[in-house]
Design a protein that fits this description.
758 residues, six-stranded parallel beta sheet, 29 helices
Length: 758
């Protein structure tokens, strides 16, 4: 450092430490300090969003492909020339004349770069003559390792401020353990968690509105704290007209944009190894083979062979340099503590080979006098190992002697009633119920409590839910005037993160959707119910001590008025293959279609008469083609309605003129005696009224139990049906055999009476 001169250009990855050092040395020099990437951009030219827009607009590249090309534009001659000819490469004026010598601080330049800098003298800063000997600790598991770090930090804070203590090499698999174990010792820590903008509901609403207009999209963000981040992205494309390309790029950037969570002051921080300086304390975790130091693989756009030909460092070169750089950093800092683990998730782990080069010896630091909570947890782990695997930990006896009251393997899973005032305050004296919440309630009250009161089951968008939502969206719009299939289809999937396989499959579904729309149009032409609702919301307000609203969205309603009555057919779209059977309705389970009848009967529609209630399968199972049968007819038959029809044939005929031929409704056949066949599912008006009354009773029963805060663990068992099926909370309730409520199977005809009681 003593040999630095005026007009030196220093390239470093640790500008902060270098500036601090120069300030301490009180040297007054006219020098520049920049990062490696800043140097490359300033010397060779850089590209910005204008170049990205250009490639996407001209060649219809995807966002990812365009960025990949731009990342390597210096080495792709044809691309470099094209960008230069279109003034898309930006240069920093006079940069090359602003320095006389290049100084490298723990940085290596590619041969390609060095060849371009032949007129400059290039020197490296002298390596530190310090050769510190950091301590190395071996631990069995991640938890043991983090516990050891916590114990050491408690000693450190006696001599330094806690914000001078840092963690290095922390992967996502470590963060959840750090958050938990640091809390046992009351050590504050910033985990540098990132929030994905794309995952926020307000951003998804913005994206949906973006196709309409920028102004309407920005209105969604008017009061959002995230508006500034969106504005920054929009401003990057202010040079271009607000066309489809700009909209696409804004959406793609929102998908990748992540913002840091708020940091707390006076806390341990996580830093990169390049940011290590001589004054602070650092704990380098997970010093295991394949993890530390950072490794590079031959998986870039340019292969290692191509890099060799161009004069760029290969992945092998980078790995050698990373190892040397890491060793230099470790040996140059007096306050570094390294650690590694020997096992993870039941697999053996190996220490990094770099530790052998450092010639470090293992140390032991395992204290039990700092956290009673963690000691009890460790005791439970040791007891697990001893009872299940006969492994006797050397510390088991000591911990067991001091913590005999941990009630190991003793638990009470029963639900304890919540205080009424606390509960009402939590739900804000109002309750929204729907089919799904009532279904959860009657499957198991505790399941309802966790899912629909505490809302622990966050919605997770999967490829399956994307397909279901796509079909529902298209069929909601398909029968409106000026429907544009391609526009609606592309608009819906525009903001979805899909891999190539999923994109291929979802595009194959286009033809299915076209076919379904044609089939539905053909079915509707056979009906006198020529008025329709799609995705219609219905609500019923219930009398109760708190405000209770029962609501539901019905996919499709066909209706018309005849002789003072409103004849209605209810249709629910399903991409899955659910059971239409009404047997479990007696117990309040699987009441979706009966609930829809209840909602319609209690709506603004006057004097409702139900012609039928049905499911329409949108992705029916595919059968093998049978020779001699008409393919179109066989395929069309897959989309017949399955459900229950009104046994009053005059009412049914208003919905399906040709019901006798069973063209629209599955199994709607008539015998030679002009009676419905045994396969036909029909209900009388009286039976449907009983069904509605039964739904009302079950809703009232549920409201009463909810108001009394009765959320006991009581999964129902009806034959092969289990209320625990597909429940995400099975690891929380710890249900016992006596918690299961076993119910006898009931035929729906029994509780509906089987006769017309209207």
């Amino acid at each position: 450092m003593d040999n630095l001169r005026n007009f030196d250009l220093i390239i470093t990855d640790n500008k902060k430490e270098l500036l601090s050092f120069l300030n301490d040395s009180k040297k007054l020099l006219n020098i520049k300090i920049i990062s490696y990437q800043e140097f490359i951009d300033s010397y060779f030219g850089y590209i910005n969003s204008e170049a990205l827009y250009y490639l996407v607009k001209k060649y219809n590249y995807s966002y990812e492909v365009a960025n990949m090309y731009l990342k390597n534009f210096l080495y792709i001659d044809s691309l470099y020339k094209e960008l230069q000819d279109n003034n898309l490469i930006k240069f920093v004026p006079l940069f090359k004349k602003s320095f006389k010598r290049i100084v490298l601080d723990n940085i290596k330049l590619d041969p390609y770069v060095i060849n371009k800098l032949s007129k400059y003298e290039i020197v490296e800063l002298n390596k530190s003559d310090k050769n510190y000997n950091p301590k190395l600790f071996e631990y069995k598991t991640i938890e043991d390792e983090i516990n050891g770090v916590c114990l050491s930090i408690l000693l450190d804070v006696n001599s330094v401020n806690i914000d001078k203590i840092h963690l290095v090499n922390v992967g996502d698999d470590y963060k959840k353990h750090i958050k938990r174990i640091f809390s046992f010792y009351n050590i504050p820590v910033n985990l540098n968690d990132k929030i994905s903008l794309y995952g926020l509901p307000v951003i998804k609403d913005f994206i949906k509105k973006l196709d309409d207009s920028l102004d309407s999209a920005l209105e969604v963000l008017e009061k959002s704290e995230y508006k500034k981040y969106v504005i920054d992205i929009i401003n990057k494309y202010a040079f271009a007209p607000f066309d489809d390309t700009v909209k696409y790029l804004i959406k793609e950037e929102l998908k990748t944009k992540k913002i840091s969570s708020k940091k707390i002051s006076n806390a341990v921080d996580i830093v990169d190894i390049d940011k290590i300086n001589n004054s602070d304390i650092y704990y380098i975790l997970n010093c295991n083979q394949g993890v530390f130091p950072k490794t590079y693989k031959d998986e870039d756009y340019l292969t290692d062979i191509e890099k060799t030909n161009i004069g760029l460092f290969t992945s092998l070169d980078k790995n050698k340099q990373e190892k040397i750089k890491t060793i230099n950093i470790i040996l140059s800092c007096p306050n570094i503590r390294l650690s590694y683990i020997t096992s993870s998730k039941g697999e053996e782990m190996y220490r990094s080979s770099i530790l052998k080069d450092l010639k470090l010896e293992n140390n032991i630091n395992d204290s039990f006098n700092k956290s009673n909570i963690y000691n009890k947890l460790r005791l439970s782990y040791m007891l697990d190992d001893y009872i299940k695997f006969n492994i006797h930990n050397k510390n088991l006896d000591k911990l067991y002697y001091n913590y005999k009251d941990i009630n190991y393997l003793d638990y009470d899973n029963s639900y304890k009633t919540i205080d009424e005032s606390l509960f009402n305050k939590y739900i804000d004296n109002k309750l929204n119920l729907s089919y799904s919440s009532i279904n959860n309630f009657y499957k198991c009250k505790f399941r309802f409590y966790l899912n629909d009161i505490l809302k622990l089951n966050e919605y997770e968008e999967t490829f399956h839910t994307i397909i279901g939502n796509l079909f529902h969206h298209i069929l909601e719009c398909a029968f409106k005037p000026n429907f544009d299939f391609e526009k609606e289809f592309n608009s819906f999937i525009a903001d979805k993160e899909l891999n190539y396989k999923e994109k291929f499959f979802i595009n194959k579904l286009k033809e299915d959707l076209h076919f379904i729309i044609d089939v539905i149009n053909e079915q509707d032409s056979d009906s006198n119910l020529d008025k329709s609702y799609y995705e219609k919301k219905f609500t019923v307000n219930k009398d109760s001590s708190i405000k209770v609203t029962f609501k539901g969205f019905i996919d499709k309603i066909k209706y018309n008025e005849f002789n003072g009555k409103t004849v209605v057919a209810i249709i629910d779209y399903k991409t899955g293959n659910p059971d239409i059977n009404l047997d479990k309705v007696y117990y309040g389970i699987d009441m979706q279609l009966p609930i829809y009848i209840y909602l319609v009967k209690n709506s603004e529609l006057i004097n409702v008469e139900i012609a039928g209630f049905y499911l329409q399968h949108l992705l029916p199972p595919i059968d093998n083609y049978q020779e001699g049968k008409d393919y179109y007819t066989e395929r069309k038959n897959k989309y017949k309605l399955t459900g229950y029809s009104n046994s009053n044939r005059d009412i049914l005929e208003l919905f399906d003129k040709n019901y006798i031929k069973s063209n629209m409704i599955k199994s709607m056949s008539v015998t030679l005696k002009d009676e419905f066949s045994s396969n036909a599912k029909v209900l009388s008006d009286g039976e449907m009224d009983k069904l509605v009354n039964h739904v009302d009773d079950k809703i009232n029963e549920a409201i009463k139990d909810i108001e009394s805060r009765d959320f006991s663990i009581n999964p129902k068992q009806i034959g092969e049906f289990s209320g625990c099926e597909h429940c995400r909370f099975k690891d929380i309730c710890y249900k016992k055999e006596e918690d299961i409520v076993r119910l006898k199977e009931v035929d729906y005809k029994e509780f509906l009476g089987g006769e017309d009681n209207a």
